[in-house]
Design brief:
Family: Belongs to the glycosyltransferase 2 family.
GO molecular function: dolichyl-phosphate beta-D-mannosyltransferase activity
Strand content: 15-25%
Shape: globular
Strand order of the largest sheet: 3-2-1-4-7-5-8
Distance between the termini: 30 Å
GO cellular component, one term: membrane
CATH architecture: Alpha-Beta Complex
Domain Glycosyltransferase 2-like: 6-172
Radius of gyration: 17 Å
Number of domains: 1
Order of helices and strands: EHEHEHEHEEHEHHEEH
Protein name: Dolichyl-phosphate beta-D-mannosyltransferase
CATH superfamily: Spore Coat Polysaccharide Biosynthesis Protein SpsA, Chain A
CATH class: Alpha Beta
Length: 243
């Protein structure tokens, strides 16, 4: 059994999932993968089941009844990992926006440098984004600046979804008290780790927008992030925020 598990939520990722999994399993360091599929209409889960015959010990699959949000997918994946003996648990997108090769760098930041949370950061050294229109780059960058200003977290890429957590971080955070299901989930997890005084590092990565499949971004997700941050910070000031 590997010490490291990569949790990958999927919804209609049939065009990406096989190539991504083969990339992860070809790395020099061993990683296991848990795919959390929201019963994708394109039958992503059937492709994963097919690949399980080849990667019998390293590829795992959870199939949910329907599309229930990114945050809940990760929480189910985290709980699955905590029920087993993984020491390092990763978040990673299925669309190749996160380079599988960077898994090793995030792993080393926690394992060799003794950080508790390692964030694959687009903004810690300038803006490292490929294939995004300028309007979206500015929206994402300003969102991270806004979150950093409101929460006072010393993190440049507060909305990043490429993260390695030490087991003890996910054991400390009450996963049943996570409020948000969209991309605000990423902010909330970092905020709770920050309030718990875990050691956090940003590892610079290059983020490449998907070339296959469709983006899951929506106006509702952005609204949740904007107002959710204010709510989190307000509650934390009056000790009403549960970690």
């Amino acid at each position: 059994m590997s010490k490291a598990l990569v949790v990958i939520p999927t919804y209609n990722e049939i065009e990406n999932i096989e190539r991504l999994l083969r990339n992860v399993f070809s790395l020099q360091r061993k990683f296991e993968v848990l795919v959390v599929d929201d019963n994708s209409p394109d039958l992503t889960h059937l492709k994963v089941k097919e690949l399980q015959e080849e990667f019998t010990e390293d590829l795992h699959l959870l199939i949910r009844k329907g599309k229930s949000g990114l945050g809940t997918a990760y929480i189910e994946g985290f709980k699955w990992a905590l029920a087993r003996k993984y020491e390092y648990i990763f978040e990673m997108d299925a669309d190749f926006s996160h380079n599988p090769n960077d898994l090793i760098r995030l792993y080393n930041a926690c394992d060799k440098q003794a950080f508790d949370v390692a964030i694959g950061s687009r903004y810690v050294k300038g803006v490292n984004v490929v294939n995004w229109p300028m309007s979206r780059v500015m929206l994402s960058w300003l969102a991270s600046k806004y979150v950093r200003f409101i929460t006072q977290m010393p993190i440049f890429d507060t909305t990043a979804g490429f993260v390695c957590y030490r087991r003890k971080v996910l054991e400390t955070i009450n996963l049943d008290k996570i409020q948000f299901v969209g991309y605000a989930f990423q902010i909330e997890m970092k905020f709770k780790a920050y309030l718990s005084q875990f050691k956090i590092i940003e590892v610079p990565v290059i983020f490449t927008d998907r070339t296959k499949g469709e983006s899951k971004m929506s106006g509702g997700i952005i609204k949740e992030a904007v107002f959710g941050v204010l709510s989190m910070k307000f509650k934390s000031l009056f000790n009403r925020y549960e970690i």
